[in-house]
């Protein structure tokens, strides 16, 4: 039977253990919510002070040139590209995930209209992240198309002659289930459709190979596994074969071929640069670069492959310990047990008290989160494992706290059943 000492020994033998020192981790906190908001990199406060006090405070507007502010979206984008199987110059950091999805979904729809006007369906997974579905619904309404939602195991069968775009999130936000990007992209192409991938729960957490999978478009989040800070800029990638074919719909001045010529007519920049829109948020972009650097620090230690190996070990350990030490308390596993199907999170359900149990854990310093269910899906207790800073002993201690919360019934206390605005 595994012990806490065994977990400590695993941590001592972990070649990635030094990467934890890159982060500010509050004393007494076990942080299992990096799939919602990554922790603060130690380098970020000093970098923000530098931007505020020196680049802005002293050099003022000159910093667009002297500090390279104007190139920051593409510089950060080139770093993110190394994590998702893209090339420098193909990916840029900009706007939010939702805004970037709108850009690429409209661009993909225009491509489909030009090549096969009879195709008028956007296909997605029923349990996809809501903002993705809202954006797709909006685009479908604008075009007079249909948004069709199916279960994960129905996607391939539904890809037919009327489907223009397949839009999926690589790792499901509720369950942690991971799609096979290469297979589904190939099936979409065989059916004549384009493939858009949301990497919000995979970039920086699992290996991604956009070019190798021959994806068409991708967007992703900067504040989860990339540790860019709350509301950090997102990113957008377009396969080079598509980048110059159409304008993206938010034709702003930063996406102009010559922004400072100030011409009254729009001429899109070449390639991914046209997917910029307005002035980049320099403070948050600088913070995002610090976050991305924490992930790139794993490259000499094996990079994303090494992070993935540790992620699988942590999530497997959590599942095993919950099964062993919390048996009889009504918890059920939602996330896949198969390594190839699981992202970097583990999700549990319980018929009663899911929200209160998470709140009781947070009061103990174990931070996960809760996602409400509906008529089709149960409530979710969600735990994310960021291999850059999560340890095996954190997993052990988190499960011990979970067991104590369940055995004591402390989750029934009134204060743990008061709903907050953010769950």
TrEMBL record:
It is an enzyme of class 3 (hydrolase). GO terms for molecular function: kynureninase activity. The modification N6-(pyridoxal phosphate)lysine is found at residue 224. It holds the Pfam family KYNU_C. It catalyses: L-kynurenine + H2O = anthranilate + L-alanine + H(+); 3-hydroxy-L-kynurenine + H2O = 3-hydroxyanthranilate + L-alanine + H(+). Pyridoxal 5'-phosphate binds at residues 97-98, 129-132, 169, 198, 201, 223, 253, 279. NCBIfam families: kynureninase (TIGR01814). PANTHER family: KYNURENINASE. This is Kynureninase. It comes from Caldimonas aquatica.
């Amino acid at each position: 039977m595994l012990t806490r000492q065994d977990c400590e020994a695993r941590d001592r033998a972990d070649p990635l253990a030094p990467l934890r020192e890159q982060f500010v981790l509050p004393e007494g906190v076990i942080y299992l919510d990096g799939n919602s908001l990554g922790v603060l990199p130690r380098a970020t406060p000093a970098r923000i002070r530098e931007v505020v006090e020196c680049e802005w405070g002293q050099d003022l507007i000159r910093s667009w040139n002297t500090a390279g502010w104007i190139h920051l979206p593409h510089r950060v984008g080139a770093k993110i590209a190394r994590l998702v199987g893209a090339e420098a110059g193909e990916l840029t950091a900009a706007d939010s995930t939702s805004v970037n999805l709108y850009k690429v979904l409209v661009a993909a729809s225009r491509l489909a209209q030009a090549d096969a006007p009879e195709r008028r369906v956007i296909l997605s997974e029923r349990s996809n992240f809501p903002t993705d579905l809202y954006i797709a619904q909006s685009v479908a309404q604008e075009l007079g198309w249909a948004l069709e939602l199916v279960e994960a195991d129905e996607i391939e069968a539904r890809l037919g002659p009327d489907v223009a775009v397949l839009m999926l999130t690589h790792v499901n936000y509720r369950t942690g289930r991971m799609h096979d990007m290469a297979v589904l992209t190939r099936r979409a192409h065989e059916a004549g459709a384009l493939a858009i991938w949301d990497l919000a729960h995979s970039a920086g957490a699992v290996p991604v190979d956009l070019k190798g999978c021959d994806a068409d478009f991708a967007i992703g989040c900067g504040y989860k596994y990339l540790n860019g800070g709350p509301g950090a800029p997102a990113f957008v990638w377009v396969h080079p074969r598509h980048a110059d074919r159409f304008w993206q719909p938010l034709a702003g001045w930063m996406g102009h071929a010559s922004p400072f010529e100030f011409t009254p007519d729009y001429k899109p920049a070449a390639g991914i640069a046209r997917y910029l829109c307005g002035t980049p948020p320099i403070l948050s972009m600088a913070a995002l670069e610090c976050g991305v650097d924490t992930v790139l620090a794993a490259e000499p230690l094996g990079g994303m492959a090494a992070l993935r190996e540790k992620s699988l070990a942590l999530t497997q350990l959590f599942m095993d310990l919950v099964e062993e030490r919390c048996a009889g308390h009504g918890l059920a596993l939602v996330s896949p047990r198969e390594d190839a199907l699981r992202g970097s999170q583990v999700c549990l359900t319980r018929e009663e008290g899911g929200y209160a149990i998470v709140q009781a854990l947070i009061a103990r310093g174990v931070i996960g989160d809760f996602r409400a269910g509906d008529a089709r899906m149960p409530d979710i207790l969600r735990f994310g494992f960021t291999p850059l800073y999560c340890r095996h002993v954190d997993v052990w201690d988190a499960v011990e706290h979970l067991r104590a919360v369940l055995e004591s019934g402390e989750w029934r206390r009134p204060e743990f059943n008061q709903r907050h605005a953010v769950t």
